[in-house]
Amino acid sequence: MFDRERERMVEDHLVRRGITDERVLAAMRRVPRHLFVPEALRNRAYGDHPLPIGEQQTISQPYIVGLMTSLLELSGHEKVLEVGTGSGFQTAVLAELARRVCSIERLPALATRARATLEALGYTNVWVRVGNGTLGWPDEAPFDRILIAAGGPAVPPPLCEQLAPGGRMVLPIGDAGGQTLTLVENVGGIMRTTPQGECMFVKLVGKYAWEA
Question: The whole model's pTM is what?
């Protein structure tokens, strides 16, 4: 029953705002965003705005999910680290486009719920664990791509160390008042950063970010 709303979301909030990666658009047409939000909010699932998912966290607006995913330039063979599983919606979009997705969530209740939703939808290339995302996932490193879905004061050093040569990382950098979406590229061991515009995310909490 949400097929029409999902198509409208893609056309109105992604295509019209400049998202052109056809693989990303197709993935967002497939992933049922309404299953990743509380049942009482499902009638608002396809609007271009964040929604609360509990634990004082939110699911990102569709445009931001599309933009961040596009900036990763996924071709299908990559291993991706996601920091901040949240509802699991961004995780599902990544799983549609990458070979393997390793996702870290610091809040056990959200991790459990996201894992259950992803399993129910049949994703078999996703691993969700509870932990400090600013430390990354050393046992699975290096990663071809890294996506951080929370705003911190700087790029956590462990994540730079875990980004493969030629890899790309997308994250918001700033404070609670606002952040700059930033692309980080590992060019011969040098981290090259490029700002991508203003954004607003929940705080990145952990050893190399903010305190809870």
Answer: 0.96
User: In whole angstroms, what is the distance from residue 88 CA to residue 156 CA?
Assistant: 22
Q: Which residues pair with 80 in a beta bridge?
A: 101, 145
Q: Which residues pair with 57 in a beta bridge?
A: 54
The rounded distance, in Å, linking the Cα atoms of 160 and 147 is: 12
Give me the residue spans of the domains in the chain: 63-199
Structure tokens at 22: 């056809």
Selecting among 60, 70, 87, 103, the annotated active-site residue is 60
62-72 and 22-30 are packed helices; what angle lies between their axes, rounded to 10 degrees? 140
CA distance 149 to 205: 11
State the chain's mean pLDDT as an integer.
Answer: 96
Distance CA 120, CA 98 (A): 19
The question of whether 60 is a catalytic residue gets the answer yes
Q: pLDDT tens digits for 159-193?
A: 999 999 999 999 999 988 889 999 999 999 999 99
Q: Are 189 and 180 in contact (CB under 8 A)?
A: no
Tokens for 102? 């390793």
Q: Which fold has domain 63-199?
A: Rossmann fold (3.40.50)
Q: What percent helix, strand, coil does the chain show, rounded to 5?
A: 35, 30, 30
Phi, psi of 202, rounded to the nearest 5 degrees: -65, 165
